[in-house]
What we know:
267 residues, eight-stranded mixed beta sheet, six-stranded antiparallel beta sheet, 23 strands, globular
Amino acid sequence: MRSILALLAILAFGFTAGAREIPFDFVDGYILVRASVNAQPVTLVLDSGASASVLSVDTARRLQIPLGEGQAVDGVDATSTAFAMAKTVPVANGLPLGVFELAIDLHNAEQLCSRHIDGLIGAGFFKGRVTQIDYAKHVLRLLDAAPAEGETLPLRAQNGIFCLPVSVNGSKPRWTRLDTGCNDALHWVVPRSTAGAQRGVSIGFITNDNDETLVTMKLGRLTLPHVATALHGSPIFPGEAGLLGSEVLSQYRVTVDARNGRISFAQ
Length: 267
C-alpha cells in the first residue's frame, strides 16, 4: 500500500505511467467520478468552484476516517461547518484525485443530484497540470500539454479557485468563477443597493432563487445568445463577477491549462 507521502510525491511531480484518463458520468449537470477510498467505492463530484476537496461527514464515518474539530467554510451563498479529517487520497482508474483533509455535511447538495454524492473534488485537482474535460465522451484527460484548438482565454487563480473573463451584453470582460459544480449556465453579479442575495447550499452547489434573464454572453470570440442567467445584487465571492456553470461548459471540450494560466473551448 502506498503511503500518504508517496501519493503526495505523485501529486507534486506528475502521475505514474499508464492510464491518464478518468471516465465520468454526467448526471443532472454534474461530473460524477467513480473512485475508491481504502478499497471502498465513493462517488465524487468534480467541482472546480470549490476551493477545497471534501468528503461528506456520513462517508467519512462510513469509511471510519477520524474527524477532528470543526471550522467555518464559505460556499456559494452560504457558510457551513467542516471537520478536519485524517489525510485521505481517493483514487480513480489508478490515478490519485488529490488529498482530502475535510469532511462536511452534503445533505443539501445531494438534493440537487439524483445520485448519491460522497464528496467534492475541488479546484486543487487542476493546479499545476493540464486537464481536459470531454463532456461528449464523458472522460477527463490528464495531458502533457494543452492542444492548439478552439478559443483560448486567460485563466487566473484567485480565492483558491480559477476565474476566466466573461462578457455579458457587450460589457467589458469580468473575472468569473469556473464552476463545474454549478449545473446552471451563468450566475452574474449586477450590484444594486436594494438587492439581497438568497442563501443557498454550500461549496460549489447552488439553488437558484435569484432574478433570471436571458443574455448574450461572450467567451473571447465565442458568442452565445440567449443564455439563461441568474442575476445577483451583490458579489457571491469577493472580486468575482459570478459563476460559469456546466450548462455552458458542457457545450465544449474544455481544456484547463492551470500550469500556464489558460483555458480553451473547442467543439
